[in-house]
DNA sequence: GTCTTGATCAACCATGTGGTTGAGTAGACA
DNA sequence: TGTCTACTCAACCACATGGTTGATCAAGAC
């Protein structure tokens, strides 16, 4: 579990950079070499290589060999880890919100909240 | 669009920290004050306040007032932005993968790839 | 062998980040 | 009025990050 937490830190951290997000977007359309990936950006090849290392350590990308080229491949599986984390808390928050709405609706029907109604928010 | 890119950078960046992810997880269960949020961690209140500022600027959290308390509320809407971004490229990558599988399956059936088969990977 | 290409490693630099402590602010309360 | 509580702001520090340049490596091309 701690291991997964570290993984989440790396993945979110990797995608916190717009250049790296852009690279992921391009790799979703197909594999590419480092030079190909570097072409659109106004930074050195070394900088791009560093970005790829971050993506690789986050498990978002794999690098193989083809002569002196190193084709980069998007490994979309890690996305699952993120969406699961996000969905979990979103659903939790939304359900809580829904329950609050119900309580508020009842409060409008009557006049002031009773003890019974206030307890509903803490149930479940 | 650039605005949204900046927003994504903030959200991913905010969630790249395990303490902040933990705070989000706890806020999903219900609103809390700064002191309440700080309690489980072995850091100063000021550090927690800084974390909350990051979460707020990412749009993940809203802070209101209740006397000298500042209740923190999770704003789960921003999660949508992330999941949309993630899903878009995951689906793209998975579809590409599926198509590649089809090509490989046919290659196993025959002997070597024909020009027709190689073009299938670029279609769509 | 030597050159060229594609990419990485290493050292360095400026800036950002997460933490600290100390001072200051806003509101409840005696 | 002064004091306590809850919190923020400001200054500082150590370390991480994104960028640079120069050297190096690995594998074709000549």
Short key terms for the protein model shown above:
homodimer; 124 residues; mainly alpha; Arc Repressor Mutant, subunit A; two-stranded antiparallel sheet; 6 helices; 65% helix; DNA-binding; ArsR-like_HTH (chains A, B); DNA-binding transcription factor activity (chains A, B); HTH_ArsR_DNA-bd_dom (chains A, B); WH-like_DNA-bd_sf (chains A, B)
In brief, what are we looking at here?
Chain A has 124 residues and is mainly alpha-helical.
List the quaternary state of the chains.
homodimer
Instruction: Kindly report the average pLDDT value of chain A.
Output: 85
Strand/helix succession of chain A: HHHHEEHH
Shape of chain A: elongated
Query: What Rg of chain A, in angstroms, do the CA atoms define?
Result: 23 Å
Derived from helix and strand composition plus strand pairing, the structural class of chain A reads mainly alpha
The span between the termini of chain A is 25 Å
Largest interface: A-B, 32 and 32 residues
CATH class of the largest domain in chain A: Mainly Alpha
| The CATH architecture of the largest domain in chain A | Orthogonal Bundle
Largest β-sheet summary of chain A? 2 strands, antiparallel
**So, the CATH homologous superfamily of the largest domain in chain A?**
Winged helix-like DNA-binding domain superfamily/Winged helix DNA-binding domain
Looking at CATH, which topology of the largest domain in chain A would you report?
Arc Repressor Mutant, subunit A
Number of helices of chain A: 6
Strand content of chain A is: under 5%
User: pLDDT under 50 segments of chain A (min length 5)?
Assistant: 112-124
Helix share, percent of chain A: 55-70%
Number of strands of chain A: 2
* Strand line-up of the largest beta sheet of chain A: 1-2
How many domains is the backbone of chain A divided into? 2
């Amino acid at each position: 579990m701690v291991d997964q937490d570290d993984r989440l830190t790396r993945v979110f951290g990797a995608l916190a950079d717009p250049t790296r997000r852009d690279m992921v977007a391009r790799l979703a359309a197909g594999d590419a070499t480092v030079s190909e990936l570097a072409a659109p950006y106004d930074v050195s090849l070394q900088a791009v290589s560093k970005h790829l290392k971050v993506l690789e350590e986050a498990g978002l990308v794999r690098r193989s060999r083809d002569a002196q080229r190193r084709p980069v491949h998007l490994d979309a599986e890690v996305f699952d880890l993120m969406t699961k984390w996000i969905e979990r808390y979103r659903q939790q928050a939304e359900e809580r919100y829904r329950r609050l709405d119900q309580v508020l609706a009842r409060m409008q029907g009557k006049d002031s909240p009773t003890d019974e109604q206030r307890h509903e928010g803490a149930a479940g």
